[in-house]
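Model it.
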Amino acid sequence: AAPFQDMSDSDEWSDAESDAAEGEQRECAATTGRREYFSRCAALEAVPCAMLVAKLRCEHINLRHAGMGVKGAKALAAALAVNEHIRSLNLGDNAFGDDGCAAFVGLSNTTLTSLNLADNQIGFHGMRSLASALPGVPSLRELVLKGNALDDRAAVPLTDALSGPAAASLTRLDVSYNTLGEASGLALGEMIASNAHLLDLDLGWNSLRGAGGSSVAHALPRSALRRINLSWNSIGDQGAVALGEAIPGIAALTHLDISHNRIGRLGATALADGLRRSSTLTSCELSHNPMGLDGTKFNLEGISAIVDALRSNRRIESAGLTDVHEGASYKRGAACRFSPTDPDGSYKLDCADPWDAFLLETLHAMSNEPGETWMHVRHNGAPLVVPDSGESSGELPKSGLVEFEYVSWRRGLEAALDLDLSNAGDRLLAELAEQRVIAGDVCCHWSKLDGTPFALGVASLPAAGSLRAACSSTTPQDELTFEAALDLSSPAGRATALRLWERQLTSPLESWRSASLDDARADPAEWQYPHLPEQGTLKLEHTVELRSKPLDRGRHLSPPMAEARFDDLMRALSAEQQLSLEGPAREGPGLLSQAAGRAYFTAEQAAAVLRVVRKRKGRARAMSALHPRVIDPQNLSAAVQRAFASEAERQEVMGVLEAALSERRRGFAVRSP
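Modeled.
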């Protein structure tokens, strides 16, 4: 192999390398403004900003807090006149002042799209300089001037520049945290109405007050704005009334922020009328306004109107009503946060507090709507049963602390389906669920067939197998409804009806909303299990309840079967036991094994089941199935002894119980390492 040849001393190599380097430097200097920047710094006797020099070829530069001052602004302007790379430039808090802004007069740059001059002590003269510089930057899309000294005088050159063709490219303007007053509001209103390009305007934390806010509000129907922030401007009821009148005629605005504006009951009522008729708004922030005060007295009429309007207008996806009872109060932090359009979350409400009492009543009324509910409700630490739909909210607590989670279908209330595809009733439910998924009114979050991922609604259902799926509704409702029409004169129809009947008897979350036999009302409670009518068409609506969390979360966290459902199950179990004494057992799993796989029981309920089972072997099987599903196993022995009057029966059942416990202990010992 040829030895390595050192080219470092070659004149040809050195000349080529040198020419390439010099060409690159010339190109860099010609497009970045590096040479102009250094030259201007030297003339001003200013120290160059190393961070700027290093990033002159970058598209996005952040020079906030760089301490550039007036000289730095003048040197930077010289570089920007040549630079072709910078797209976004953050120059916040550099003490430019009015003199620094004067350096940008006459600037010509066609690549800069975003300029941030926040916190630079810019006043009237500086704003006038920037306004005259805007025509030289036709590419500018975003201008941030927040935190400066812009007042009513400075608003004049600003609005004049934005009203003309020089600012046709500007789509976002931020002049928040200044001192723009009522006169500025009048000028801004005229500018907003005439500017067809501005889409996002931030006027937060100024002093527009009622007259200025009204001027801006009246201009909104004629503007192209998509977002506007009017928070912290003290627009009061006067501005709110103007907004309420203007909102129905707005054709573009989607986001409105009027928080912290001293809006009272009168303004809230006017806003409610506008929000109800809005055709474009999707987000509305109303927090920290004393809408619940009429003078010094609590009056929640305006807030109630706002809540009704927000709930009735489905286009509004997000709304904030934090601390609207008293205004800007932070004494309880996030505890008062509330959005009528997105109420999901945890609440801790003091019933003696007027605002909390209003929230309690409002959320109770909202929970009666389809697809919305309260979970884990506690009053002063103890479980609380919430009044059902249609009951008066007067039954809600009037004092103490109520804690609960509000859950709606928007957060994915789910129905858990556990189906045996070889079972006629389960297969029918699987096929109906598949049809609903394909139609789009039911969403399947996940499904598994025999433990393997399965695409319900895409793949074909097999003839047999265990299908587990989690489905949710795409519309507001509390349950999934599956409609079926079964011919009871055919064996297949009778078998399907019987399996569906067994599911509604043994599953706490499944029921028949309605049932009819040949168009006449049918009540399964009047039938003698497992006997079905032998003729006719049974039409039924089989429902599965939607929940935020699965019912089966272990016996320490799962509720027991409701008493009414348990009474129905006991009647069916008694009939089944009687049949077992009269003849051979039916094919398939019995009611008790199905119930033990789907529900949980109290010790008293388990003892009642054992009292129905007649044979010792049957009691042994029942105890083996029930014991893992008893939520209070420590009470089981006492409940069993109370359930049987005969000492002989008590001893027999206690022996069965001890045998079941021993079997479970042996099972744990085998599984232990």
